[in-house]
Amino acid sequence: MFQIYLPIAEISVNLVVMLGLGAAVGFLSGMFGVGGGFLLTPLLMLSGIPPAIAVATGANQIVASSVSGTMAHWRRGNVDLRMGVVLIAGGVVGAVVGVFLLKILREAGQAGLMISLTYVCFLGVIGALMLWESVNAMLRARAGKAVSARRSGQHNWIHGLPFKMRFPTSRLYISAIPPLVIGCVVGLLASFLGVGGGFVMVPAMIYLLRMPTNIVIGTAIFQIIFVTAIVTLLHATFNYTLDIVLAFVLVIGGVVGGQFGVRAGQKLRAEQLRALLALMVLGVAIRILLDLVIRPSDLYSIVPFAGS
Amino acid sequence: MRATAFHLVPLLLALVVTPALAKKTAPEPEEEPASQEKVQSDISTRQISIQSNFTGAEILIFGSIDFSDSRTPGEGTYDVIAVVRGPNDPIVLRKKQRVAGIWVNGPSKTYGNVPGFYAVLSSRPVRAIASDETLKGLGIGLSDLDFGRHIADDTEEQAFRSAMIRLKEQKKLFQENDDGVKFIGRSLFRANVTLPVNVPTGRYTVDVYLFRDGAVASKSEGSLEVTKAGIEALIYRLAFKHPFIYGLLGVFLAVTMGLAGWYAFRRD
Lengths: 308, 268
Known about the structure:
The complex is a heterodimer. By secondary structure, chain A is mainly alpha-helical.
């Protein structure tokens, strides 16, 4: 019933399950204002899609969800175009490196392992930090103190770097190097993990670059469109791992689910949202870690010969 | 006697065969020596198309024994073995091992020549039908395939080999069915083969062997083609022949649908 054959993954999946998966991830990403790739790609792998195809197809899905997101932010003037361009420039470099890294690892048969390990490390660290921060924020809010992440006017080591640029939308005058590096890291993550990288970029822009929070999210999501689009293109061209049928199904689910997520998110407080998101991130990390640590049911696996 | 057998063929064809096959007529045997039995067989579907609703396919191999010496169905004079073989491909088999508490892909072995699909169906266990040498010479049975790799007698090679067969069997890409060929009446037989959803595309050969007293009395060859069809074939070709355009299409679709989603649900 409702089985659909995926031409590149060469397996048959249940259409309803995949639509539901897209919608569920879309809902969460709408609610938390994140791309959702960090949930989608592991879930695709858990449902039997080969890791490399899950990564490329996940990236393609994020293109769609970040286009929707950017439009909403753009109209509110929350996109720092200049910062976005700098981030994209770094992102392209990272994306190219990641795509070829994945190609090499795939041929060595270690792609699945490295993707899983990187997920565990990143999600574990980010999840723990977010949980720590949001619990503290909740405690402070309860104690009646003001919660502010931005300490404007305060200077840190970032301001000592050369190649300074003016970013009028963000009211910043800082070196172009940190945004380039952040963009590069995000591009690497996007091509290697099939994630948008918002979960790394947003904290980095708030805490390192000291950008205003509302502009951070709009700019991050704007940059994610381009990075994931490039990642999709590179994977399709060099690794042949994009399954357009699967992407199409996920995008339909995601676009619809995302809209409901945005509405649900407005009913929750920011710290509560962050704590929930942190728990989910940690949950995914633990799930992937268990798969690595528990003895697999079959030690052997067949992979197509790389040279063919 | 002979006349009955030939009347049954069209009857069976009418019962089980798809329109595509109606074109095919059983070839008239020319003046053959009357005592020499001969196997004739065909496949219900010559062409299997993988489309978006593909979940696997069932094919029927059917045939008859001409000039049969057998008088009753259960006599057991004849045995039939049908071998369905998909295109060969090289594969790599990897074994996981524990490194610092984590299971990682460790040693691997490459097999140069592994059939993408391989099914042996027989009217009785193949070992009971013919001797090991006979079977090996014909390449019948999983234990007689070398998969394009010299399998030394050490335990590791053997463990890899049996793991590969087990994995292929789990995916229904390797099948052995001792009871897969059924006789209908005196000289007709049929065998059902299920092709799973992950069958590789390409040309499949179907060899039907008629055994008498442990030796091949007659053989009939056929083939079928598994191809991706419709939009699936189009996507597959585009993805591998023009990957850049395919990638652009993926991005274009995502951007368009993202915009459409935003427009449909916008609230300003």
